[in-house]
Automatic annotation (TrEMBL):
One Pfam family cited in the UniProt record for this chain: RibD_C
Domain (Bacterial bifunctional deaminase-reductase C-terminal): residue spans on this chain: 6-179
An individual GO BP term: riboflavin biosynthetic process
Name of the protein: Deaminase
Gene Ontology MF annotations: 5-amino-6-(5-phosphoribosylamino)uracil reductase activity
Species assigned in the record: Nonomuraea deserti
Length: 192
């Protein structure tokens, strides 16, 4: 049996995964429905998969946060306590993550092996360049995009799909959270 792999990403309407300027986390648009839904998603047994850059960003962000900050939302705490695989050719252990395994090598090969061996679904939050490569290799079963109601044309950073291959997307789920944020779940197929 092959484990399902979900590429889970936050995005502005114009396709950026982050923004500079005075934008806060979630672009300031988080609400109770979004936060409860995220916690429910991460309450399920699964294995997280991160690239080195995303792992470093999460580890640094969590290390510099307090229990009261939005960085420590319950779903983020739950994500941090799930088993994780960090794929990197540059990091050295030990990792500052409770149940993380560091695997050196090409992400396509590592994730292909994980999909064959894992007894639980795989999920990656962020890790944009790694997930674009995994999509091109046909290893991503679901792309889950949470679209926040903002346009960050001047301050947008980290274009989510910049440089990605072309894909046809089959919509397999959608919902509106807090009356303003859209979660869209697609099954990607490389466009031939």
């Amino acid at each position: 049996m092959t484990a399902t792999y979900t590429f889970d990403v936050f995005s502005s309407l114009d396709g950026f995964g982050a923004a500079g300027g005075d934008w806060t986390g979630y672009w300031g648009k988080q609400g109770p429905e979004l936060l409860n839904h995220r916690l429910a998603l991460y309450d399920e047994e699964q294995r997280m998969v991160f690239g080195a850059n995303t792992y470093r960003a999460f580890a640094q962000m969590l290390a510099s946060s307090t229990e009261e900050s939005e960085v420590r939302d319950p779903w983020v705490t739950r994500m941090r306590n799930l088993p994780a695989t960090v794929v990197s050719t540059t990091l050295e252990g030990p990792l500052d993550w409770p149940d993380a395994t560091l695997v050196s090598g090409d992400a396509v090969n590592v994730v292909a092996r994980l999909k064959e061996e894992s007894e639980v679904p795989l999920r990656s939050h962020g890790s944009l360049s790694m997930n674009r490569a995994l999509m091109a290799a046909g290893l991503v079963d679901r792309v889950q995009v949470t679209v926040f109601p903002v346009i960050t044309g001047r301050t947008g950073a980290d274009p989510v799909f910049q440089g990605a291959a072309d894909f046809d997307l089959e919509l397999i789920g959608s919902r509106t959270l807090d009356g303003r944020t859209q979660e869209l779940v697609y099954r990607p197929t490389l466009h031939a």
